[in-house]
Structures are given as C-alpha cells and as structure tokens.
Amino acid sequence: MKKIKNIIEALSIHEDSEAVKILDEIGTNCEMDDVRELTAKALVKRNSEESLKVVVANKGKGINDLSPKVVMTTINELLALEDKENILKILDETIEENEEQDVKDTASSIRALMSFAS
User: Fold this and answer.
1) Domain hosting residue 44, numbered range
2) How many domains is the chain built from?
3) Please, are residues 41 and 73 in contact by the beta-carbon 8 Å criterion?
4) Are 71 and 80 in contact (CB under 8 A)?
5) pLDDT class for 117, splitting at 50, 70, 90?
6) Residue 110 burial (10 A CB sphere; 0-12, 13-18, 19+)
C-alpha cells in the first residue's frame, strides 16, 4: 500500500494534466476504498478545475462515492482548501448543468456546507 500511496502522491503534484486522467481512470475506479480515498485527496490537493470535476461531477466518485469513508475524506479535503475559487465554480456548474439529479443534490449540499463553513 505504501508504494501505491507514493505513486498517488507523485501524480497529485505532477504538472501534466495526464496525471489527472490517470488518477481518474485508475484510482477512482479501484475496488479498494483506501485507494479511492487517497486518489480523491490527491485530486482535491491539485485544486484544478479538471481534477475537482472528477470528485464533484461524477457519479460514484469523490463526494458521490458509495463508501462513506471516501465521501467524508473528500468533503473534509474540500473544506480544508485555502483557495476555494475553483471548487465553488465547479460546484455551481455541477448544480446547474449535471444530468444526474443525485449528483446535483450532493453538489448542492456540499455548496451549502462550504458557505456555512466560510
């Protein structure tokens, strides 16, 4: 698990946008909750629009994961962001444009939580 953690951390700081695609395709689809949790943290840590869309706007990933542990870790990481400009934008876009009602509802709840936490 330590090697996986190191790979995920390296991808989180890698400047290439391909790193986000790798984290999305491999990390968020892993059967292991711990790997999905680490991946969600890494994507939030990047704090780019592309990486935040993965954990906000996709059913079954990040704040929409089936594991409560992954969901809570993702939410805590989002709340801990110092610069919340990107996440607020992605949440608003998801609420307005996403086709999945469950995803919209979750994004709306997180948006409200973030406004109370500020």
Assistant:
1) 2-117
2) 1
3) yes
4) no
5) confident
6) buried
